[in-house]
Amino acid sequence: MKEIAKAFWSVPPGELLQQLGTTSQGLADEVVKERLKEFGAIRLKPQKRSKALSLFLSQFKSPIIIILLLAAGLSFFLHDPTDALIILAIVFISGLLGFWQERGAANAVGKLLSIVQTKATVLRNGNPVEVSFEEIVPGDIVILSAGGAIPGDCAILESKDLFLNEAALTGETYPVEKRVGELQPETSLAGRTNTLFMGTHVVSGTAKAVVGRVGADTEFGKVSERLRLRSPMTEFERGVRRFGYFLMEVTLIMVIAIFAVNVFLERPVLDSFLFSLALAVGLTPQLLPAIITINLSHGANQMAQEKVIVKRLPSIENFGSMNVLCSDKTGTLTEGVVRLHGALDIDGHESEKVLLYAYLNAVP
Question: Which of these is catalytic: 140, 328, 345, 347?
Answer without folding.
Answer: 328
